[in-house]
Design brief:
Layout: E1 2-6, H1 14-27, E2 33-35, H2 46-56, E3 59-63, H3 69-80, E4 85-89, E5 104-106, H4 112-134, H5 146-170, H6 179-185, E6 189-193, E7 198-205, E8 208-214, E9 223-231, E10 234-241, E11 247-256, E12 259-266, E13 282-289, H7 295-307, H8 309-318
Helix pairs in contact: 1-4, 3-5, 7-8
Length: about 325
């Protein structure tokens, strides 16, 4: 018996994962495993390992709290494989319409034993019982061949795009929000600058897009893009290194749902350019990534939400 857990990899969900494992281990009558993808990190392609784990899974448990894009497309792929999946969430009212009929459990972070471990154990027992009735025992699973893996990789890429779009469309948009805010919502999420391998995480905070980033890595906070606005066919934003002098601005064109292209310029001018400068900037290609938001980005976004961007920037300048 293999249970594959689909959920955010962030440390703040570790207690939820422990509760899931306890429920599944109490539910099974034979040796098995309950794991999520980040527990083992062998060499090789992550996509192929994900496909293998989903194919080997007896059933899945998916925590779709906050509807993280990577969680949603893993859930979509599990559904495409026909894997029995138990959905858990902290808010049932936010379930997208096309998964609202899946067996779901609402849990409370303050009472995980009573709201998650116990009910999940009960549902897992019933799920395993139904599988014993419907299916003969599987003693071996043939490893997918190279040609089959190539097809599965393409299918997974297609599922990623479809699930990302479903997530965006299913998120409620404030009816009073300006068209620009509605457009900014499409940029939220994880991005990687292909030229520098910098990682950026965009979030809407009080109607503004705040994008903390890690220059040439994904390990620590380097700076922030802010002040996003439309200028013609481009998105304009300023950037500021935190704890350092470099600052400037960028012009990015949204060539596709998951692709921004343009350049950035170093400048301390306060005036907003009305178009990309004629001087050559540093090329920038931002491609959307299926990554969980790391702790350094979450901490910065949380502080900006509480104190406001200006106060946070002042704190870094004072260092």
């Amino acid at each position: 018996m293999n249970c594959f857990v689909i959920m955010p990899f962030a440390k703040e969900f570790d207690d939820v994962y422990d509760a899931i494992r306890k429920a599944v281990e109490d539910a099974v009558e034979q040796p098995g495993s309950c794991a999520r993808l980040d527990e083992n990190r062998p060499a090789g392609r992550i996509t192929e390992r994900l496909i293998r784990e989903l194919r080997l899974a007896t059933f899945c448990v998916a925590d779709i709290t906050d509807e993280k894009p990577n969680v949603m497309w893993e859930l979509g792929y599990a559904m495409a494989l026909g894997k029995p999946t138990i959905v858990i969430t902290q808010d049932l009212s936010k379930l997208p319409f096309d998964i609202a009929d899946i067996q779901s459990i609402k849990y409370d972070r303050r009472h995980l034993r009573s709201t998650l471990t116990r009910p999940l154990k009960s549902v897992a027992v019933d799920t395993l019982a139904s599988l014993r009735v419907r299916q003969p025992e599987v003693t071996a699973v043939e490893a997918p061949k190279d040609a089959e893996l190539a097809i599965l990789r393409k299918e997974l890429t297609d599922v990623k795009s479809m699930i990302l779009e479903v997530v965006r469309l299913s998120k409620p948009i404030d009816a009073t929000a300006s068209p620009q805010i509605s457009e900014l919502q499409k940029i939220t999420g994880a991005w990687v600058n292909e030229e520098s391998n910098s990682h950026a995480y965009a979030a809407l905070v009080n109607g503004d897009l705040v994008v903390p980033y890690s220059y040439q890595s994904n390990d620590f906070l380097t700076g922030v893009y802010f002040g996003w606005r439309r200028i013609g066919e481009y998105w304009f934003a300023r950037y500021q290194w935190l704890g350092g002098d470099p600052s400037g601005f960028t012009f990015l064109k949204q060539d596709a749902l998951d692709l921004l292209t343009g350049a950035w310029w170093s400048s301390s001018d306060e005036d907003t350019p009305t178009a990309p400068p004629k001087t050559r900037g540093v090329p920038a290609t931002w491609r959307r990534a299926q990554l969980p938001t790391p702790s350094w980005a979450n901490a910065f976004i949380t502080e900006v939400t509480r104190k406001g961007l200006a106060a946070v920037l002042d704190r870094f300048v004072e260092r």
